Amino acid sequence: MNISNVLLNFLLPEMSSVASYDESVFLDLWSKIYSNHQLLCYYPSSAIEWPPAEGHAINLQLCHSLKLEPAVISLMQRLPRVRTPPYSTYDFLDETYQIEYEPDGVLRFARDPFALKEEDARENYLLPQDVMLTSGNSLVGICMILDTRANTIRKFNTLTGAPAVFDDEERSKCERPDDPGQYRNYGARTRCS
To answer: What DSSP assignment string belongs to 150-187?
Structure first.
């Protein structure tokens, strides 16, 4: 079992015990990952940037132009992050990087898990209620996307793409049957399975 599966086994039981998305519950769980990294000496405490009371500064005008929902904007402002080199280049979890939602180019890039460079990012690829929590490192790796409306997480490998859809019956079960590679076709997880 890789660390991203361990993370889901840690997050999902707590998330599924709440009827709907609760930012404070999610932030508490997500922040424990950073705290545990610190306790395990993966990051020194000085490398972790905890959000100030008003949240991290991000480009709110850009967020609104991207039509991001308030829950997504608030979460992006409140997530801890590691910005100190060389720690900022360490894998956050196996084959993943944490995401900073500034500068603006990274915020745009964080709207498309399959983009290889900023200018290729499709700004409206993720739904307005979805936020990419981790990205793959380079061309491969695990993306985790939180749906703040449904209180679910989708996890997938950017190298292997979406699950194959072979016949009409399987295609009919997809949220986006006309786009088999679309991230919304990955199973949304609300509990460990």
So the answer is: TTEEEEEETTT-SPP--SHHHHHTSSSTT-TT-GGGSP
Domain count, the chain: 1
Q: Is this prediction's pTM over 0.85? A: no
In whole angstroms, what is the distance from residue 105 CA to residue 82 CA?
Answer: 18
Q: Residue 55: give the domain boundaries.
A: 3-185
Q: What is the pLDDT of residues 34-93, one digit of tens each?
A: 999 999 999 999 999 999 999 999 999 999 999 999 999 999 999 999 988 888 888 888
Is 191 a member of any domain? no
> With bands split at pLDDT 50, 70 and 90, how would you rate the model's confidence at 108?
confident
Q: Give the N- to C-terminal CA distance of the chain in Å, as an integer.
A: 13
Domain assignment present for 192: no
Would you list the DSSP string of the chain? Answer: --HHHHHHHHHHHHHHTSSS--HHHHHHHHHHHHHHHHHTTSS-GGGEEPPPTT-----HHHHHHTT--HHHHHHHHH--EE-STTGGGS-SSTTEEE----SHHHHHHTT-TT-SSGGG--TTSS-TTEEEEEEEBTTB-EEEEEETTTTEEEEEETTT-SPP--SHHHHHTSSSTT-TT-GGGSPPBSS--
Do the domain assignments include residue 118? yes
Answer yes or no: is 98 within a domain.
yes
